[in-house]
Write a structure and sequence with these properties.
This protein has 241 residues and is of the alpha/beta class. It has eight helices and seven strands, in the order E-E-H-E-H-E-H-E-H-H-H-E-H-E-H. InterPro entries: AB_hydrolase_fold, TEII, TesA-like, Thioesterase.
Length: 241
């Protein structure tokens, strides 16, 4: 396992299954620390650290979803246990591409959970990665998922801005074939007040799997997970069985 890409905050080697947690745009592995703790010891949480942030801040940023997914796929060992993929926002499409790669490699995931992201077949005219710094900050405020400290401190914000731009570019330019589909079960989580994804846009993921499909709507906005850790934990443990 490549520890640059994969962090295990709460290792659970005896857990019957593992879950790969893929962060949102601008997010780091630490965004899932609380969820990782809640999943222990029922699931072995492997949290992805993309290049260009925290201890990887000096590495080149990636601006392509498939490159991110390939990096994760190459970093993951096949340890024989059932594997869940959970990605939030940008992480959802990275998880989708990761599932496609793993299936081609004969290591299909047990299930894919796409959270807080509209289906690839839907379209919105979004170009946050081309905005000036004030415009990027305005988008983060709209989503209410960023520590206000980063938005109020110009030096801190300047530090995270390159990773934000790279991630937004990756997700906003991402395209896949309308009929691209995984064979594993696909479950979509979405907040009922998410400004980035309507329930119908989330339901459109149905065409992206030939397996079972389910849609679960949680109270909250784009970062509903912050207030629904217990509910999401229970759902992921149930899906691993």
């Amino acid at each position: 396992m490549d520890e640059r890409w994969i962090k295990r905050f709460h290792p659970a080697p005896d857990a019957p299954a593992r879950v790969i947690l893929l962060p949102h745009a601008g997010g780091a592995a630490s965004a899932y620390f609380k969820l990782s703790a809640a999943l222990h010891p029922a699931l072995d949480a492997h949290t992805v650290q993309y290049p260009g942030r925290q201890e990887r801040r000096h590495e080149p940023l990636l601006t392509d979803v498939r490159q991110l997914a390939t990096g994760v796929a190459d970093a993951l060992p096949d340890d024989g246990r059932p594997t869940l993929l959970f990605g939030h926002s940008m992480g959802a499409v990275v998880a989708f591409e990761l599932a496609l790669i793993l299936e081609r490699r004969g290591a299909a995931p047990h299930a894919l959970i796409a959270s807080g992201r509209r289906a690839p077949s839907t379209y919105r005219d979004e170009w946050v990665h081309q905005r000036d710094p004030a415009g990027v900050a305005a988008e983060l405020r709209r989503l209410s998922g960023t520590d206000p400290v980063f938005l109020q401190d110009p030096e801190l914000f300047e530090m995270v801005l390159p990773a934000l731009r790279a991630d937004y570019r990756a997700v906003e330019t991402y395209q896949c074939a309308a009929d691209a589909a995984v064979g594993c079960p696909l479950v979509v989580f979405v907040g009922d007040d998410d400004p980035k994804t309507t329930v119908e846009e989330a339901r459109a993921w149905r065409r992206n799997t030939t397996g079972d499909f389910d849609l679960r709507v949680f109270p909250g906005g784009h970062f509903y997970l912050d207030d629904q850790v217990a509910e999401v934990t229970d759902a992921l443990i149930a899906l691993s069985r």
